[in-house]
Write a structure and sequence with these properties.
Layout lengths: L4 E9 L11 E3 L2 H5 L4 E8 L10 H23 L8 E3 L5 E3 L5 E8 L3 H6 L3 H5 L18 E8 L4 E8 L5 H17 L29 H11 L4 E8 L1 H16 L9 H19 L7 E8 L17 E6 L12 H13 L3 H7 L5 H15 L13 E6 L18 E4 L6 E6 L6 E8 H7 L3 H6 L11
Parallel strand pairs: 6-7, 10-12, 12-14
Antiparallel strand pairs: 1-6, 2-5, 3-8, 3-13, 4-5, 7-8, 9-15, 10-11, 14-15
Helix pairs in contact: 2-5, 6-11, 7-9, 8-9
């Protein structure tokens, strides 16, 4: 879809209060170094009915101007608490942020198209136009901003707010926390920040005492970025409606009950098991050793540490666990309920004690294991296109359960929240607006995608074309 989009303003928004001198440098941790140096894009869509009642041209222009002023003012106040987001990453200085208050770029556009045309037929190329720039750049540098925003005003009165967060500064929880608190300040339209979450008063936390940075790790992380940025990768959206998720979970419960095992999968676990099973079946057809197929799952550490870390604090506070198949039958076949249960078993091991043991003494053992794993992954080439390598690593991620459908800037709750990431062998899982389903943006090599779409489990439970407006 080719939208009629016109840029009406570009502005740099700086924190409303200067960052104190003693806070001018924010050190990034080992976990930040391990995170991919890419942009994490998020787009939120809001209906027109809660924005302006009079749809005349004059009313729409006045409403847009009022929204613009209010958003920029509240963003400026929010940045005083998230001051590293207004700075720049200094890569050559071993990963620190220069909190120089250089600001966050904000682009505003007028979109001649109807927002519901986008919602009815969401396409990656269309959604990218709603972001301040294409987030799928291969290489980032100090000159690349930490956070950027684009506010899109549709002709119909709807609004879409697009974000690009630099991942080495913010994971999904940090990004959502920032958006939530910006929305709260904007909603209140107060000169003070009394409505901001108490946890946001401590949004900036130095975690380098637990996860000290490592000078050797950066090159390996960069190799993983290149491996995931295949030009021959295709990303497609699969929607698992609430009724389908419920049926999938019932099937998994019955499969485990037949083995005298009690297991009730979460929505995330169920979809992970289904997708993982489809990939294993596809690899078996290609005569690839499926025992070398692993899934990686990021586990949020904020509420697993003792004491807990602030819920919305910035940075990458997750540990990526690697899950293996654990074939219970021993026959080379893997049912989706077993795979879903494996996801739970591996992720529930992550506790405060586990984390402190893994990263003790600067995480030397873990870092060495990480480097060996990357070398093994890339030994047959770095493009990861033909998936005939001895290892297939598939990543599951996404901000499921972070309640972003409650983010209200003063225009009501969003109709749809989505991402725009193109990563090879990665599935980004998000909530549907009713909180009962799951949307999965799946990136695979072109040849693999055509086979993945024909998997019987995917065909049974996923919809390829349904609108995010669907409530089914």
């Amino acid at each position: 879809m080719n939208m009629q989009l016109r840029i009406i303003s570009k502005e740099i928004i700086k924190p409303s209060s200067p960052t104190p001198h003693h806070l001018k440098t924010h050190k990034l941790s080992l976990l930040d170094q391990l995170a991919p140096d890419i942009y994490l894009p998020i787009v939120l869509f809001y209906d027109s009915s809660s924005r302006v009642d009079d749809k005349t041209s004059t009313a729409t222009i006045n409403s847009t101007n009022n929204i613009s002023r209010r958003l920029k003012n509240s963003l400026s106040k929010t940045l005083t608490h998230y001051y590293p987001f207004a700075g720049r990453v200094l890569l050559k200085d071993n990963y620190v942020i220069d909190c120089d208050d250089s600001g966050v770029p904000v682009v505003e556009t007028l979109v001649g198209s109807n927002m519901f045309d986008v919602l009815n037929f969401p396409e990656m190329d269309t959604l990218e136009q709603l972001l301040p720039f294409n987030p799928n750049k291969k290489h980032l540098s100090t000159h690349d901003v930490t956070v950027a925003v684009q506010i899109n005003y549709f002709h119909c009165g709807g609004v879409a707010v697009g974000f690009n967060f630099r991942h080495i500064v913010a994971d999904g929880a940090a990004a959502i926390g920032f958006i939530k608190n910006w929305a709260k300040l904007n909603y209140s339209n107060d000169d003070h920040d009394i409505n901001i979450d108490v946890s946001t008063k401590y949004a900036v936390v130095d975690c380098t005492n637990i996860f000290p940075p490592n000078k050797e790790i950066s090159g390996y992380s960069r190799s993983i970025n290149e491996w995931q940025r295949s030009t021959e990768c295709v990303t497609k959206r699969f929607r698992f409606n609430g009724s389908k998720i419920a049926a999938l979970r019932r099937e998994m419960i019955m499969e485990k009950a037949s083995l005298n095992l009690q297991y009730r999968p979460s929505r995330f676990e169920a979809v992970c098991g289904l997708i993982w099973g489809a990939l294993l079946a596809m690899d078996r057809e290609k005569h690839i050793d499926s025992t070398s197929t692993i899934a990686t799952i990021p586990v949020n550490l904020r509420n697993r540490m003792n004491p807990p870390l602030p819920e919305g604090c910035i940075g990458n506070l997750f540990h990526a666990v690697t899950c293996t198949e654990n074939n219970e039958a021993g026959d080379g076949h893997y049912n989706k309920s077993t795979l879903a249960r494996n996801v739970r078993e591996f992720t529930k091991m992550v506790s405060d004690d586990f984390v402190r043991k893994v990263y003790q003494d600067g995480g030397v053992v873990f870092v060495n294991q990480y480097k060996e794993a990357v070398e093994e992954l890339l030994k047959d080439g770095t493009n990861n296109n033909n998936t005939t390598n001895s290892v297939r690593m598939f990543g599951f991620s996404g901000p499921i359960g972070l309640q972003y459908y409650g983010i209200d800037f003063g225009w009501g709750k969003p109709l749809w929240v989505t991402t725009v990431m193109r990563l090879n062998n990665v599935a980004m899982l998000l909530d549907t607006c009713d909180g009962k389903g799951v949307e999965a943006w799946v990136g695979l090599p072109i040849n693999d995608m055509s086979k993945f779409e024909q998997d019987l489990g995917i065909l049974a439970y996923a919809s390829f074309t349904s609108s995010p407006r669907s409530r089914i």
